[in-house]
Amino acid sequence: MRICMLTSSHNIFDNRIYYKEILSLKKYYDDIYLIAPGDKDFVTEDGIKVRCFKKRRSWYDRLRPMRDMFNIAKEVNADIYHAHEPDSFQVAVKLKKRFGKKIIFDSHEYYPEAFAEHFGGLFEIAKKMIYIYEKSIAIHADYIVTVNDILVNKFKEYNNSVELITNYPVLEGEINKTYSEKPVFVYAGGLSEDRGILKTLEAIKLSKKDAKYLFIGNFRDKETEDRVMDYVANNLKEKDVEFTGRIGHKEVIEYLKKAYAGFVLLQPKNWRYVNSEPIKLFEYMMSKTAVIASDFPMMASIVEAERCGVVVNPVEPKDIAEAIDYLIDNREIAIKMGENGYRATVEKYNWEINERKLLIIYRQIEGEMVGS
């Protein structure tokens, strides 16, 4: 059986698409293609055949890339097409209508809300229109997979074949921590205001304790970088703050081995963040790192139930600073929180559980193909 993943905007080596879903399916299926934006076709070291089309020039440049994707997908002639955005799924629907292909819609973002953000004051109107469009294509899916209960319930209103496949991390084996005398606090990910970078720095200024702070990742834009660096230069001269830039996955793991606690301080202005289970939370837990997390219901319920960190109001630097100082003053509790988080990922918050569910879906669709 030939499988083809479709993505209009994600990176070829996207964590969920490539390292989780594709490599899980590769254990059982040999013939797998990925059609994605890129410069040239190639075969990965895992034997995945990558077919590329030119990236879109801006967020509204959508028609030409989709025509290119359809033409490549038609040539690939797969049995199942697995699409990761509404516009790539529109291509899958076209393949189903014309050639009878089986199709899966993988909705791992709040796409209507995200796309409507481009329309400013017309956000609510745009969101409503995109919801209508999403429903008009999603009803054609042979299966819909998605990442949380909010999205599961939304899609179940008009498609009976919906499965929860969360974005939990792939277990990488137990990490042996090496704590230094000075506690190391880490943030790993994109650096932007809506992910809490400025509030975190304001909290560091208020903290009464000595610690090292590592920020791993790229700034979203030059404006944010300038604001952050100005704040650090003017307010944190006495603090041990380091920005590493973007580094490789293995290097991130090395930093996490030394991490005392990690920040997941998404800001409430973004509805999508409030109603999410960020992968960063589980990556910290998997590395035995205590977390300081936003007090949003979905995130807080996990942190509190697993006793793996502290939840705070992410817009209040004073609350964040108090959490930093609490963890520094209570070393044994912080270490225990890290161990609790690791145990929870081994027991339930890991990709291996989802891998089994994904395979069941493919086996079911494969059985329908044989029986038809």
Your description of this structure?
The protein has 372 residues and is of the alpha/beta class. The protein folds into two domains: 189 residues, Glycogen Phosphorylase B (Rossmann fold); 164 residues, 3-Layer(aba) Sandwich (Rossmann fold), CATH 3.40.50.2000. The protein is built from 15 helices and 14 strands. The chain has an eight-stranded mixed β-sheet with strand order 3-4-2-1-5-6-7-8, sandwiched between helices. Strand 10, helix 8 and strand 11 form a beta-alpha-beta unit. Helix 11 packs across helix 14. The longest helix is centred in the C-terminal third of the chain and has 21 residues. Keywords: Glycosyltransferase, Transferase. Its EC number is 2.4.1.301.
Which key terms come to mind for this protein?
Rossmann fold, alpha/beta, 48% helix, 14 strands, 2 domains, six-stranded parallel sheet, transferase, glycosyltransferase, 17% strand, EC 2.4.1.301, 372 residues, globular, 15 helices
End-to-end Cα distance: 15 Å
Task: Going across the biggest sheet, name each strand in turn.
Answer: 3-4-2-1-5-6-7-8
Order of helices and strands: EHEEEHEHEHHEHEEHEHEHEHHEHEHHH
Oligomer: single chain
Query: What's the overall average pLDDT, rounded?
Result: 93
What is the helix fraction of residues, given as a range? 40-55%
CATH superfamily of the largest domain: Glycogen Phosphorylase B
Going by CATH, the architecture of the largest domain would be 3-Layer(aba) Sandwich
The count of domains is: 2
Strand content: 15-25%
Q: Supply the number of helical segments.
A: 15
- Class by SSE composition: alpha/beta
**Name of the top-level CATH class of the largest domain:** Alpha Beta
Q: What general outline do the C-alpha atoms trace?
A: globular
